Amino acid sequence: EMKKMFVTAATALLCFLAYSQEADELGKLAEFSVIARGEYLYSDPLGNSSLYTLLDGSFSEHLSYSVSNHWLSSDPKSLYTNTFHSDYTNWLDWAFLTYTYDNVGISVGKAPLLWGTYEFDEYDFDIHYPFASSVWSELSCYQWGGSLSWTIMDVLTLEAGVSTSPYGERPFTSGLYVAGLRAIYDSDYFGFRAAYNHFGVGDGECTGVYSCGIRGKFAEKFSLTLDAQNAVGDSENIFIKGESARAALDYSACDSFQILLNAGWEHYDAENADLFKCGAALHYYPVENLRLHALGAYNFGMEGIEFPFVFSVGATITLSKEW
């Protein structure tokens, strides 16, 4: 029944496309980007080395599309062996259509879950692994489904969506789904978001995760982000009981230099143990499309931490074409 619902939604969206092509001039705006990141990470030599492409554009005034492909990683074989899987990431991060009319939007396809932390707003190739939360590391957040959004006064957006579940091996055939709700408030100097996602995990069981984030900008060059969620990540179960939070301070000294300070905390209920993370990163842009980075991070609190101190150096280059 859920699969039929998605097919019906996709058919309706195609009908909107036919209508919009008659009502509006066909849009020609599109942007294609190639992003390559290479780095050395002390605890994991290739770290977040990767190759991505992004394609964003519009068919008309009301209908837009977005496609993100992950072609290479530190473990490129897994990107392709996990094709058509929903429990692991693969070479297709997302591919969705969005129809907007006035302040309402409908999206159908493969897209990120409606998560509440700002960490999940970042492109994967911009994430520094030593700073990432365990939830970000273990959750396969790109899932097939649909969502509805409603924007109020240009600053508040309410979203609801249903998608396949990362607890299922194959999309749709597993019969497991995620229902999500999210509210986003964004103004020039302050942002807030909160979400709840209800996961089908199998055998009639479900689990729910709350997540939220706050971001403030001040003194023109600073931004402070606070994220929290009532779960920690686990390599076998995706989520286990616990709490996690992080704070990130971003100082943009000028167009060429950026300093990031990051602190994270994760509490594991079963062990009644805490993991703390702290670190700093420097970004340098010698030219607009090239970013060089260096970072150091320290992990402490729990016993058995294999790499208490880690460091990384690397470069990210972005090549884009608009038409």
Structure description:
- The protein is mostly beta strands.
- 10% of the residues lie in helices and 57% in strands.
- A 16-stranded antiparallel beta barrel has the order 1-2-3-4-5-6-7-8-9-10-11-14-15-16-17-18. Strands 12-13 form a two-stranded antiparallel ribbon.
- The longest helix is centred in the N-terminal third of the chain and has 22 residues, at 2-23.
- The chain starts with a helix and ends with a strand.
- The model has no long low-confidence stretch (mean pLDDT 92).
Provide a concise account of the structure shown.
With 323 residues, the chain is mostly beta strands. The protein contains three helices and 18 strands.
**Mean pLDDT score, rounded?**
92
Spell out the helices and strands N to C: HEEEHEEHEEEEEEEEEEEEE
Q: How are the strands ordered across the major sheet? A: 1-2-3-4-5-6-7-8-9-10-11-14-15-16-17-18
Q: Which parts are unreliable, with pLDDT below 50 for 5 consecutive residues or more?
A: none
Q: Approximately how much beta-strand content do the residues carry?
A: over 45%
Structural class: mainly beta
Radius of gyration: 20 Å
Helix fraction bin: 10-25%
Our count of helices gives 3
Gap between N and C termini: 40 Å
> Rough shape?
globular
Oligomer: single chain
* Total DSSP E strands: 18
